[in-house]
């Protein structure tokens, strides 16, 4: 990656979709309109907005899961396409919203976590895939002896930890969290957010955190980009956005934030344990 370039950048990203209208007509609508974002090394950038604002579509373009209609995606100042996409995917991983939908229910945890390493043809670890998977499970707070279980045998919080372990298995530089805690109870959210913070401190991951929940943003973001109707309407650091928002839309979002402070490590340890599903 080059010099001082952002670790990940979207430049003038636009995404148009076609949909069927009345009388058999097809019409085009723009889900994301000329969006530019920069994510820097070791930071958490939150992209926030209401449902339908275009934030998840933006995230998927930045992850190169869908192709922009216009604009470019750069990793370390370089574009990746074709055969070089494997190198891009090694560096940019995604944690999805619903852990159970994103984990293959027919695969055991060892298969799920090791899949990116095998898919990207990474060298087999000295201790083999099993040892590496157990190491990753321990890092994210899961019992490594449960590596032969299926996703349905875990709670929602535990399943999301499996998704996080899968994402960091290939040692990426960027992790895109697409509503990664929105499906979890508040106490479990706090513990997963604390895990993400710890991993960032240890390995300097850069996070793009997609969410509609500004209470979560307050806990984890360094910078915030506010999105509405497919456009970025305001950006700033966390303090600026929360104390001196410039746009009425941002003020409206802030007015809806519940007055809840997420508990950090010590307090979160008092929360109900993430037991297996029944």
Automatic annotation (TrEMBL):
Belongs to the ABC transporter superfamily. GO terms for biological process: peptide transport; transmembrane transport. Keywords: ATP-binding, Nucleotide-binding, Transport. Coiled coil: none annotated. CDD domains: ABC_NikE_OppD_transporters (cd03257). This is ABC transporter ATP-binding protein. Residues 8-254 form the ABC transporter domain. The keyword Transcription regulation does not apply. It holds the Pfam family oligo_HPY. The keyword Ubl conjugation does not apply. Gene3D superfamilies: P-loop containing nucleotide triphosphate hydrolases. GO terms for molecular function: ATP binding; ATP hydrolysis activity. It comes from Nakamurella aerolata.
């Amino acid at each position: 990656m080059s010099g001082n370039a952002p670790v990940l950048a979207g430049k003038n990203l636009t995404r148009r979709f076609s949909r069927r209208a009345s009388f058999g007509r097809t019409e085009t609508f723009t889900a994301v309109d000329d969006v530019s974002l920069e994510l820097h090394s070791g930071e958490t950038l939150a992209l926030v907005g209401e449902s339908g604002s275009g934030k998840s579509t933006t995230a998927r373009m930045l992850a190169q899961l869908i192709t922009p209609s216009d604009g470019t995606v750069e990793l370390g100042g370089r574009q990746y396409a074709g055969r070089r996409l494997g190198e891009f995917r090694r560096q940019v991983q995604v944690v999805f919203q619903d852990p159970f939908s994103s984990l293959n229910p027919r695969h055991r945890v060892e298969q799920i976590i090791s899949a990116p390493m095998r898919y990207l043809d990474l060298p087999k670890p000295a201790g083999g895939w099993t040892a590496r998977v157990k190491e990753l499970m321990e890092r994210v707070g899961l019992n490594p002896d449960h590596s032969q279980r299926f996703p349905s045998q875990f709670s929602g919080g535990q399943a999301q930890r499996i998704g996080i372990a899968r994402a960091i298995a290939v040692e990426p530089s960027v992790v895109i969290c697409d509503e990664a805690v929105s499906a979890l109870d508040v106490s479990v959210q706090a513990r997963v957010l604390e895990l993400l913070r710890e991993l960032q401190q240890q390995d300097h991951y850069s996070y793009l955190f997609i969410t509609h929940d500004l209470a979560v943003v307050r806990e984890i973001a360094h910078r915030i980009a506010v999105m509405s109707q497919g456009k970025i309407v305001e950006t700033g650091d966390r303090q600026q956005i929360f104390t001196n928002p410039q746009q009425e839309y941002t003020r409206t979002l802030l007015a809806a934030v519940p007055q809840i402070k997420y508990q950090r490590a010590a307090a979160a340890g008092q929360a109900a344990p993430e037991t297996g599903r029944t």
